[in-house]
Amino acid sequence: MITHGGLIHNVKLMRRRYRSTSRTILVSWLPQYHDMGLIGGLLTSMGSTVVVAGYQQNHATHTAGPNFAFELLVRKLELNKVQNFDLSSLVFLMTAAEPIRPATLKRFIELTQAFGLSQENVDPETGKELEKSENEGEVWVSSLSSGVGYWDMKELSETTFRNKLDNHSGKLYLRTGDLGRVIEDIEKTVESSSEILRPGCCAAVSVPSEILLAKGISVPDVSDQIALVVIAEVRETKFSSQEVVKKIETRVAEEHGVIVAATVLIKPRSIAKLHQER
């Protein structure tokens, strides 16, 4: 359940973060039935911001998009396929709605002088904030913008929306259910391990060990009840699956010290690019 107060807080917060003024020009290609397009685009623009359809033609000051949009732009810039690309009017750029890849943003910064985000993790069992980068954790959020609970589900609302941390007294946290780990970008490492893999078409996900064991997939003893699974699209060419898988798993182990429990190679354009909210 989202309250009017939570929505208003979220809009005001975004306006402050946006550094929005009466001269702000926001470019958004996100549909208005999507929460990012509706709240982050339309509602935050009402009363102070002009929403337009083109960037350079209108000297946009604000814009946003998912990670794959930045990845595509980086590729085009690197191949010099973008001509007369002027970002001088831009003062705020946001990326959201899908996993944020530090390597993509770092390269984007190098090419366009934009900037990115960060996050913290919590141990879902102990409720304590994690500090070491090698630990898996659940992402918790504390904000007046958060929902207040599920309709007519008091017990589940209590365990999901009203959690506390020992070192942050007075705050209530929303358990997102998403696992996080503060490490470098595993997906970029996977993509760079073989030319057979399609760039921007890979997913590295944490899967509970019991799920993999139930499917007959062995799990490393050091997995901490969570195992890493890699899914990657391959190019339309002949190749040795075993060789590609070996390269992926070796590269990930060398770069991140993480053992890949399972690697799945799939045909091109199998991973959907639509960013859906849960």
Task: Explain the layout of strands and helices.
Blueprint: H1 4-18, E1 24-27, H2 35-45, E2 49-52, E3 62-65, H3 67-78, E4 92-95, H4 102-112, E5 137-141, H5 154-161, E6 163-165, E7 168-180, H6 186-192, E8 197-208, H7 209-214, E9 226-234, H8 241-256, E10 260-266
Parallel strand pairs: 1-2, 1-3, 3-4, 9-10
Antiparallel strand pairs: 5-7, 6-7, 8-9
Short description, anyone?
It is built from eight helices and ten strands. The protein has 278 residues and is an alpha/beta fold. The protein has three domains: 4-112, Rossmann fold (3-Layer(aba) Sandwich); 119-180, Luciferase, domain 3, CATH 2.30.38; 186-266, GMP Synthetase, Chain A, domain 3 (2-Layer Sandwich).
Order of helices and strands: HEHEEHEHEHEEHEHEHE
- Straight-line distance between termini: 14 Å
Q: What does the radius of gyration come to?
A: 21 Å
Please report the first level of CATH classification, the CATH class of the largest domain: Alpha Beta
Name the shape in a single word: flat
Count of individual helical segments: 8
Structure description:
This protein has 278 residues and is α/β, with parallel strands linked by helices. It folds into three domains: 4-112, Rossmann fold (3-Layer(aba) Sandwich), CATH 3.40.50.980; 119-180, Luciferase, domain 3 (Roll); 186-266, GMP Synthetase, Chain A, domain 3. The protein has eight helices and ten strands. The chain has helices at residues 4-18, 35-45, 67-78, 102-112, 154-161, 186-192, 209-214, 241-256, and strands spanning 24-27, 49-52, 62-65, 92-95, 137-141, 163-165, 168-180, 197-208, 226-234, 260-266. A four-stranded parallel sheet has the order 2-1-3-4. The chain has a three-stranded antiparallel sheet with strand order 5-7-6. It is flat. The model is unreliable at 49-53 and 114-120 (pLDDT under 50).
